[in-house]
Design a protein that fits this description.
Elements: H1 8-17, H2 37-45, H3 66-69, H4 88-93, H5 108-120, H6 145-150, H7 157-163, H8 201-204, H9 224-228, E1 256-258, E2 264-266, E3 290-292, E4 297-299, H10 378-382, H11 423-427, E5 482-484, E6 489-491, E7 564-565, E8 572-573
Antiparallel strand pairs: 1-2, 3-4, 5-6, 7-8
Length: 588
């Protein structure tokens, strides 16, 4: 027998079970009528229901209802095994099931009736006119209607002849929806909770699984409910995160396949996880997610391994599916606290929306397939601006018009703070001493968030680092810029009158070390060099309007600085404080 064909026994059962509604199944000659649940078995079970009844029955086994008796245990095992005289159900009736002091033997007559019902009559729910006795016994691997139909790839057209196209009675006047409330093809008929709304994902995912198991140590159950329910760490995942979800139950690849000739082939293999296009979970960077049935672990899934091998502080990027509520996906398992690429453990500095003040997370923003930076407001506003260059940095600092504070990474806008200070006075140039100054004049260039020297560096940010691309103007003419983080002052910066040429200016009262928190008079025209400078090149008493005679590229006839507009960025541009002194040939 191949996996493409149902067994001969199954085929015969289908043919018999799907016979015409008007052809009742007769007992064989001399065969006794089968006992059925009502009233034969229900009365006998009253001796057991003091323990095995109610919402919390002993061993999770109810004996006060038919479907409780034939139900599988939490691990999927059968307590009543049709045709087996040694099944736990009958062993308990005979007083042979441990602990024996709790399982007193029933009367010989009761044991005989229960044995006949479970073995010969296969736990029949009632007298079936057409179907075999085990048709409703879910643990009957030969006669249960679900098993029989599965062996044919759920070809139900013959069923409709008796029960109607809607399965609500038909000629047989037996309504299948008495058990399958929304019809026999809702997802939770086979897996999940068949008593609840099948449109609710929490009830179409195990427990139970296809074996009837409900215990989370069963691989068919595992952490399904942890994924499809909202949790403290993430919003509910949909089934298509890991599986291909069929648009219709009979879609090939679900529970049936199709041969080249169009014949239905029952599918006997497990459902795919991440394979052949199954699932939409993104893999770790440069990886594809994989599922290992033997170890019950997924690897390279972005949800549990968002940085691949980059984060060496992540504690458990391959959680075990069947270890539910055992810390397999606790905070710190998927990425370090902080990740090894981060120096600062104050996550909320950059992840304002994701991290809560109490240390918790916003489920909608966590494990959602993207790293949400900032407060979710500034960046949205920035995206509409004509200068998209700032539309990354200002997720964490700055605002919709600039990546420079205010705001700082703590959301503060007080100019009296070193993290705010004179940032805007530099990057916007409001006093028209020169045009905007690029961040890289004082800080390390950060083309991407993960550039070394950014996340892997504790605050405060590096100022005047000796790296390529930083401080081109600040180091002009041999200047050696430095910043005092304690005093909040910068010194030896070309922009503030330093460098070989400018340091020859002996004008009294110059301020070559301005305070970052100083008022607007700290940096003014005449504060970095004299007007004119007191040196050998400038006659004493030269007026401001006379500067244009030698510096026509920079100074206008009224003593104003000349500005042009950059055609690309729209920023004001001047040759003042650009790293070199523009000197034209003076008139005779």
């Amino acid at each position: 027998m191949t996996s493409r064909q149902p067994s001969l026994a199954a085929a015969l059962l289908v043919a018999f079970a799907l016979a015409a509604c008007g052809n009742p199944r007769a007992n064989r000659l001399g065969e006794a009528e089968c006992p059925v649940y009502e009233p034969d078995i229900a009365d006998l079970m009253k001796a057991c229901t003091s323990c095995h009844a109610g919402p919390t029955p002993a061993a999770d086994y109810r004996l006060d209802a038919y479907f409780g008796i034939v139900a599988r245990g939490p691990d999927g095992s059968a307590r009543l095994v049709p045709g087996d005289a040694d099944s736990p159900f009958l062993a308990a009736a005979r007083g042979e099931l441990a602990p024996q002091e709790q399982h007193k033997a029933l009367s010989p007559e009761a044991v005989a009736t229960l044995t006949d019902w479970a073995v010969r009559c296969r736990g029949a729910s009632e007298k079936h006119a057409v179907h075999p006795p085990g048709w409703m016994t879910v643990t009957d691997l030969e006669q249960f209607h679900g098993k029989v139909l599965r062996a044919t790839g759920y070809q139900v057209e013959p069923c409709k002849k008796c029960h109607g196209d809607d399965f609500k009675g038909g000629a047989a006047k037996v309504d299948c929806t008495q058990c399958h409330k929304r019809g026999p093809f809702e997802c939770n008929v086979c897996h999940g909770d068949s008593t609840a709304d099948p449109k609710d994902l929490r009830n179409v995912a195990p427990p139970k699984d296809l074996t009837g198991a409900t215990i989370t140590t069963s691989v068919g159950v595992g952490a399904h409910q942890k994924h499809v329910n909202d949790g403290p760490m993430h919003k509910a995942f949909t089934c298509d995160a890991c599986h291909v979800v069929p648009q219709t139950p009979e879609q090939p690849g679900h529970y049936r396949l199709l041969a080249e000739d169009g014949a239905v082939i029952p599918k006997v293999t497990r459902d795919e996880v991440f394979d052949a296009g199954a699932g939409n979970v993104r893999g770790s960077p440069g990886q594809l997610p994989e599922w290992n049935l033997e170890t019950a672990q997924c690897t390279n899934a972005y949800c549990h391994n968002p940085t691949s091998a980059v984060d060496t502080k992540a504690l458990n990027v391959t959680p075990t599916w069947t270890k539910v509520d055992k810390g397999e996906a606790a905070c710190g398992t998927c990425h370090g606290l902080p990740p090894s690429s981060h120096a600062d453990n104050r996550c909320q500095l950059c992840h304002h929306e994701t991290l809560l003040a109490d240390g918790g997370v916003t489920p909608e923003k966590h494990a959602n397939g993207t790293v949400d930076l900032g407060d979710g407001v500034t960046f949205v506003e920035c995206a509409a601006q004509p200068a998209p260059a700032v539309c990354q940095c200002n997720r964490c600092h700055g605002d919709a018009t600039s990546a420079a504070p205010p705001r700082d990474t703590l959301g503060r806008a007080d100019a009296g703070l070193l993290t705010v200070g004179a940032h805007r006075a530099h990057v916007e140039g409001p006093h028209k001493l020169r045009g905007p100054i690029d961040c890289a004049e004082c800080h390390r260039p950060i083309p991407t968030v993960t550039t070394p020297g950014h996340l892997d560096h504790l605050p405060p940010a590096e100022t005047f680092p000796a790296v390529t691309g930083a401080g081109t103007v600040a180091r002009a003419d041999g200047a050696l810029p430095a910043y005092d983080y304690t005093a909040g002052t910068c010194s030896k910066v070309y922009c503030h009158g330093n460098g070989a040429k400018l340091l020859t200016d002996a004008t009294p009262g110059l301020n070559h070390t301005p305070n970052w928190l100083g008022d607007e008079t700290t940096v003014r025209c005449g504060g970095c060099h004299g007007i004119p400078p007191l040196d050998a090149a400038h006659p004493v008493g030269t007026s401001l309007v006379a500067c244009t005679k030698c510096h026509a590229a920079t100074i206008g006839p009224t003593g104003n600085f000349k500005f042009t507009t950059d055609p690309v960025t729209g920023a004001l541009v001047t040759t003042h404080i650009d790293g070199h002194v523009d000197v034209n040939t003076p008139p005779p």
